[in-house]
Amino acid sequence: MTLLDGKKTSNDIKDEIALEVQAMKERGEKVPHLAAVLVGEDGASLTYVGSKVRACERVGFESTLVKMPASTSEEELLAKVKELNENDAIDGYIVQLPLPKHIDEQKVLLAVDSEKDVDGFHPENFGKMALDMPAFIPATPYGIMELLDRYDVDTQGKNTVVIGRSHIVGRPMSILMSRKGNPGNSTVTLTHSRTQNIEEFTKEADIIISALGVPEFLKADMVKEGVTVIDVGITRVPDESHPKGYVIKGDVDFENVSAKASFITPVPGGVGPMTIAMLLKNTLLARKVRQ
Fold first, then answer.
1. What are the residue numbers of the active site?
2. Most buried residue, 33, 51, 75, 149, by CB count within 10 Å?
3. pTM of the model
């Protein structure tokens, strides 16, 4: 069994980006600038945005954190988005989700300039990705593809089962794994919470990508020997014996499934760190395109 180490791989990618940024500086060029918009005080969002800012510092990017109160109106947020669209100093930016319930997320994401949409959520980028055109790929799916590539996981002609149909992970993964190229060229089945007898699909899968959000959903008796398992799930499970009062669990019963797997991602330390690394990669690409 080979562990797909997202922490190590993401650090490798950050080192590669840092070298490119250093070369930009030496040529007297403007370095990439990533902005993040955070509305409200959601704990997980604060942690995630903080790690993005630190990642920018590490690779030599400029970064801007725009913090807005939870009471921010939709109009105020759209005005801020317009301001970032028009700011030539900003190469790419993200609007951290989830947004407060009184704000229409779809309307906000549509307002983001597709050329600065380094999260890859804009319909224009999603459509271009589906058509195999150059586009910003959503950071989590992009990170999964990069892991498969760097660990030489063979996807050609393989039977891939994706669990979960979110716009952020499941659907883009189903498109990326079926496209021409490597990683890709696999036959994809997209399953979800309404799929009947899901184990009938997973037992036949060469590759399983689970983004369901149900702790330890995928059991050892649901997979075959030699399977490749990508666990995107990350759920806080209450645990009074732990100092934090909770433990982080993925979608996969790691201890038992890993005994049958040829490749598997851990949680934490698998897909999570890759997401931020690929956000940086998208920002570097945005800078090059704008240049």
1. 52, 96, 119
2. 33
3. 0.95
